[in-house]
Amino acid sequence: MSIWSFANPTRFMAVTARLTPALGALAAVLLVIGLGWGFFFTPDDYRQGATVKIIYLHVPAALFAINAWFMMLVASLIWLIRRHHVSALAARAAAPVGITMTLIALVTGAVWGQPMWGTWWAWDPRLTSFLILCLFYVGYIALWEAIEDPDTAADLTSVLCLVGSVFAVLSRYAVNFWNQGLHQGASLSLDTEENVADVFYYPLLVCIGGFAALFVALVLLRTRTEIRVRRLHALRLRERMADA
Amino acid sequence: MRDLALAVRSGGGFGLGLVFFLIVTVLVPFGVGPETARLAPIAPGILWVGALLACLLSLDRIFALDREDGALDLLATAPIPLEGLTLAKAAAHWLTTGLPISIAAAPLGVFLSLPWPGHLWLSLSLLVGTPALSLIGCFGAALTVGLRRGGLLLSVLVLPLYIPTLVFGADVARRGAEGLDAATPLALLGAVTLGCLAGLPFAAAAALRVSLR
Amino acid sequence: MTLVARELTVGRGGLPILARLSFTVEPGRALILRGPNGSGKTTLLRTLSGLQAPYEGEVEPGPEAVAYGGHRDGMKGQMTVAENLSFWAGLHGVRDIEPALRAFDLQRLEDRLAQHLSAGQGRRLGLARLLVTGRSIWCLDEPTVSLDAENTGRFADMVRGHLAGGGIAVIATHIDLGLDGDTLDVRPYKATLEALE
């Protein structure tokens, strides 16, 4: 059986009908464990105090903010090449989840940055890149909303996603370049994976797992909704044709 | 292809971008104050952002006018590839917006107390960078041509794509004004423009084909 | 060159409008499309011209032999009649616009800006464009809109001239132009639910 057989909407609906709630439950369990462990059973950082614990929201959200875009890119490519409707709808479904993750990452970052750096916002390359990513999401979602014909919308947003991906990567490098140029050495980089100790690391892993399950569950849920909307749309068309 | 540029130019209204650029530049000192010490450091950035907005202003006309009077359908059925058409449209847009802005930017720098060698660097950076703005804008216009109120959406789509060009372009002008070596950002800016030139006409033509059907 | 459509299904926005349409138009003949508004005449003409892909079926020859004339002429008001024509002639690799000007009696208006033309003159300019494309199949969508009786008669003469030269015309119109050809009522081909499957 090929993986493409899941591109059949009926099959997709059947499989995800049970998978989605299961993933949702898994996400809930993992997040309760991960966040509970992280918030209440890890020591405060000797320098950062309790604020370090926001890491359990911040890092997974940031991770899936980027992964969501990557997923949209792959789904767009599949739509453009193989014309599977589920793929186009999955790309559409992932965008709002992605922008929500981006916003969570930005807001938690600001909340973290305030006590640490004494400012809500700094034009650090990472922060700036996320802000740009957020703008790309906005444009992508706006284009989906603006076009009535679903296939046209899927085609145009896919092209936008492809071009946007190239420019997103380009912007990332441009921002690095720009920031270095502006204030040398004043880096506020927070490369957590490298310097966080084991005691923080394991709950973080659980949280990332929880976010992964949550992300997949949300995307599946939204894709299912989109498929239903499309079916409704098709039914309306039939009705219109039957009336006329 | 030259006829096409001509046709677009006689479409009218494109010169307004230059006037807009001029007015924005003149307005900035009213907003931030007339002191040289304050204006000079931000002049390259202001001029670049102004140029970018001026480019944006005329983008929705690229295809919309031809769409309205039916010419776009006729162009699509003519024996020229749509890639060539978008390239010609971008070229026409640049000739009517980017080029005059690049030339006008040097004298306008005087208004913003731009230090001397900065004028040349500013014009040079705009000359190299604005073709990318026109090409990206052409792509955005192709995406939104089928929409009734595409103008605002066009800005939302295109502005994030302008970021790399703006970063490198403004950096060239800034370094030039401060007497630093501007070769690296200039090379990167050129690379962005060439990359846009190589790839975006295809993306724009694909979008146009979808929008027309 | 003969225009052949086989089992053609056309539509817009994912919804088929006309289904399983087949016809043949011989050189020198016209095909008049009839049907109420929204019955799919424009969609059919756009499909024949290659502006949109057919949902099913095929058309011969391809769009490179078809000159499309839509509701609007695509002429720039700020350019003169001659400039407009030269532009389109250049695109289609035709050098001389004199024959087209003469055929549509536009010589005296040559240097007039297109925006100062009357509706009938503008329409004639739009039709002159069809000549400079050098293409033998004309697909025209409501070409007599905004023409009075006299100009409608002239238009019919022009199409007759094109047909006499071995050309083909597919025209969506409500009025009787007295052309040599067949009439196709598109209503019976209206897409039904089965076409959606």
From TrEMBL, chain A:
Cytochrome c assembly protein domain segment(s): 8-183
Membrane-spanning residues: 21-42, 54-81, 93-115, 127-147, 159-179, 199-221
Record bears the keyword Transcription regulation: no
UniProt KW keywords: Cell inner membrane, Cell membrane, Cytochrome c-type biogenesis, Membrane, Transmembrane, Transmembrane helix, Transport
Keyword DNA repair annotated: no
GO terms for MF: heme binding; heme transmembrane transporter activity
Predominant localisation class: membrane
Compartments where located: Cell inner membrane; Membrane
Record-linked Pfam families: Cytochrom_C_asm
GO cellular component annotations of the record: plasma membrane
An example Gene Ontology biological process: cytochrome complex assembly
Listed InterPro entries: Cyt_c_assembly (IPR002541), Cyt_c_biogenesis_CcmC (IPR003557), Cyt_c_biogenesis_CcsA/CcmC (IPR045062)
Topology of the protein relative to the lipid bilayer: Multi-pass membrane protein
Function summary: Required for the export of heme to the periplasm for the biogenesis of c-type cytochromes.
NCBIfam families, per database record: ccmC (TIGR01191)
PANTHER family: CYTOCHROME B_B6 PROTEIN-RELATED (PTHR30071:SF1), HEME EXPORTER PROTEIN C (PTHR30071)
Family as reported in the entry's similarity comment: Belongs to the CcmC/CycZ/HelC family.
Protein name: Heme exporter protein C
TrEMBL record, chain B:
Recorded GO CC terms: plasma membrane
Alphabetically ordered keywords of this record: Cell inner membrane, Cell membrane, Cytochrome c-type biogenesis, Membrane, Transmembrane, Transmembrane helix, Transport
A Pfam family it matches: CcmB
Superkingdom to which the source organism belongs: Bacteria
GO molecular function term, any single one: heme transmembrane transporter activity
Bilayer topology term: Multi-pass membrane protein
Subcellular localization(s) per the UniProt record: Cell inner membrane
Family note: Belongs to the CcmB/CycW/HelB family.
Function per UniProt: Required for the export of heme to the periplasm for the biogenesis of c-type cytochromes.
Name of the featured protein: Heme exporter protein B
Species in which this protein is naturally found: Palleronia marisminoris
Lineage: Bacteria, Pseudomonadati, Pseudomonadota, Alphaproteobacteria, Rhodobacterales
Automatic annotation (TrEMBL), chain C:
PROSITE patterns, sorted: ABC_TRANSPORTER_2
Gene Ontology biological-process entries: cytochrome complex assembly
Domain of life: Bacteria
Gene3D superfamilies for the chain: P-loop containing nucleotide triphosphate hydrolases
Record-annotated ABC transporter domain positions: 3-196
InterPro entries given in the database record: AAA+_ATPase (IPR003593), ABC_transporter-like_ATP-bd (IPR003439), ABC_transptr_haem_export_CcmA (IPR005895), P-loop_NTPase (IPR027417)
Secretion signal span: none
Enzyme Commission identifier(s): 3.6.3.41
Keywords: ATP-binding, Cytochrome c-type biogenesis, Hydrolase, Membrane, Nucleotide-binding, Translocase, Transport
Molecular-function GO term, any one: ATP hydrolysis activity
PANTHER family, A to Z: ABC TRANSPORTER I FAMILY MEMBER 1 (PTHR43499:SF1)
Name of the protein described by the UniProt record: Cytochrome c biogenesis ATP-binding export protein CcmA
Origin species: Palleronia marisminoris
